[in-house]
Write a structure and sequence with these properties.
The protein is an alpha+beta fold. 34% of the residues lie in helices and 18% in strands. The chain contains twelve helices and 18 strands. The strands form four sheets. Strands 1-2-3-15-11-18-9-8-4 form a nine-stranded antiparallel sheet, covered by helices on one side. A five-stranded antiparallel sheet has the order 7-10-16-13-14, covered by helices on one side. It has a two-stranded antiparallel sheet with strand order 5-6. Strand 5 and strand 6 form a beta hairpin. Helix 1 runs antiparallel to helix 3, helix 3 packs across helix 5 and helix 8 runs antiparallel to helix 9. The two termini are 49 Å apart. The mean pLDDT is 88.
């Protein structure tokens, strides 16, 4: 929760009574760096990222609070991911996550996080940290109302009574206690009610279960999906550019056609591309009808690099052209897009090709996106796999490798089996570079076919 430390904890410390002796020096130091510190939007995003990891990977909130990635469903299975060093969350950290969910009226998430916050606050009652924004009373207050909104009046009453133990003069909570007692007297069944909260589907994702199941495999493939037709080979693709250093191709799937090219870039090239993109990174957007906008189902930062930026981009473009055999000169291909996914960063199931003629992709006047080349510029500690939903497989992050697939059939129709997603990053920092190649300019390189199976 480094973002929280920088966004709110430091500010609370600066304005606390504890800092009176050095208050001016603290405030001056804070003002100097304030513009470079995370904003509340970043803090809120970090809390949502934790809830996303909890959901997609079915993780235990209690485990996450301890800095562990334990599965919520079973104690017999090993941790999904074991970081080299654990960073447990404080009671105030858990309160922040719960409050973000509470403010969204998402009681499915607010209850377990506030429960953990209350438990931790109880264990450390009497100890007070200057930087804390919440307290045991705050956590009890929010948890009680979450239970009330979820329909568990009995639990709301119990927590409200506990609140009054710490703050007997609070009239609002006293009124709530009377209200809950009256409700239970009028309807005693409320006391026995077992409330089952439904997890919110904010992005209305229809393929959520398939997507999350694939993400939980972390890119491993069951033996039944292995096929003798899938193989590894050295490829020159008839290009003089690849004669001395053939591409190392691993055929992942035949339908949809997906291949992974190992060691496609060097460590130096990957670092150079990241360095070139870093100053220009902005929140990623998605195409929606005829415009582009931010969306909760795509959380990352991205930047576009022209080939005039640096010779390394020119060299990379030549390699992509040789590997694919396609024309990637403008306007037949888009500029290189570099994307950075932090912890919890993801891109829910989507197509790379346009599914509507109104899409901004058609503004290039070079047709739809025919093919995708996605280069992994970094490794990750866990998560971040590329999951192909309808084809039912996922590909783990392989540093310096390039993943290639066709988005369109030879008749120009979109290949629905290419519905794919970037699974949330569990640990580490994921960087990829995307090159999208369009239909026009490829007439003699990938000829059309009327057969929908091609």
């Amino acid at each position: 929760m480094l973002i929280k430390r920088l966004q709110s904890d430091w500010l609370n410390l600066v304005h606390s009574l504890e800092a009176t002796e050095n208050i001016q020096a603290l405030k001056n130091g804070y003002k100097k760096v304030e513009k470079d510190l995370p904003e509340f939007e970043d803090l809120e995003g970090a809390a949502r990222a934790l809830m996303r990891l909890q959901d997609v990977y079915a993780l235990s909130v209690k485990g996450l609070a301890k800095g562990m990635f334990q599965r919520a469903s079973s104690t017999h299975l090993p941790d999904l991911y074991s970081p080299g060093q654990r960073f447990p969350l404080s009671a105030d950290d858990c309160f922040l996550v719960g409050k973000v969910a509470y403010d969204m009226e998402d009681y499915y998430h607010s209850i377990p996080w506030l429960e953990e916050s209350v438990s931790l606050f109880r264990g450390s009652y009497g100890d007070w940290n200057t930087e804390d924004e919440g307290s045991l009373a705050d956590a009890l207050d929010h948890l009680a109302f979450s239970y009330f909104k979820a329909g568990n009046v009995s639990q709301a009453l119990s927590l409200s009574r506990e609140f009054l133990h710490y703050d007997p003069s609070n009239k609002r909570i006293a009124r709530n206690v009377l209200k809950y007692e009256r409700l239970l007297m009028e309807n005693p069944e409320h006391a026995k009610a077992e409330v089952s909260l439904q997890r919110p589907n904010v992005t209305h994702l229809q393929t959520r279960d398939l997507y999350e199941e694939l993400c939980r495999t972390l890119g491993s493939q069951p033996a039944q999906y292995q096929s003798p037709a899938l193989h590894c080979s050295y490829e020159t693709n008839g290009s003089p550019f690849l004669i001395l250093q053939p591409a190392k191709k691993e055929l992942i799937r035949l339908q949809p056609y997906v291949a992974l090219y190992h060691n496609f870039v060097s460590d130096l090239e990957a670092e150079k591309i990241k360095d070139l993109a870093a100053p220009w990174l902005q929140r990623s957007v998605v195409a929606s009808e005829d415009k582009q906008q931010k969306a909760e189902y795509r959380i990352s930062k991205s930047a576009w690099l022209k080939d005039t930026v640096d010779p390394v981009i020119v060299s990379l473009d030549q390699r992509i052209a040789a590997m694919t055999g396609l024309n990637i000169q403008p306007p037949y291909a888009e500029y290189l897009q570099v994307v950075n996914y932090g912890i919890g960063g993801h891109y829910e199931p989507h197509f790379d090709h346009a599914t509507s003629r109104k899409s901004p992709l058609y503004r290039m006047k070079s047709g739809n996106r025919l093919a995708t080349v996605m280069i992994y510029l970094s490794s990750v500690e866990a998560g971040g796999s590329t999951a192909f939903i309808y084809a039912n497989f996922s590909v783990p992050v392989v540093k310096n490798a390039a993943l290639f697939w066709w988005n369109l059939h030879r008749n120009g129709a979109g290949d629905e089996d290419t519905l794919h997603a970037g699974c949330p990053v569990l640990g580490g920092d994921k960087w990829v570079a995307n090159k999208w190649i369009h239909e026009h300019g490829q007439e003699f390189r990938r000829p059309c076919s009327p057969d929908p199976r091609d």
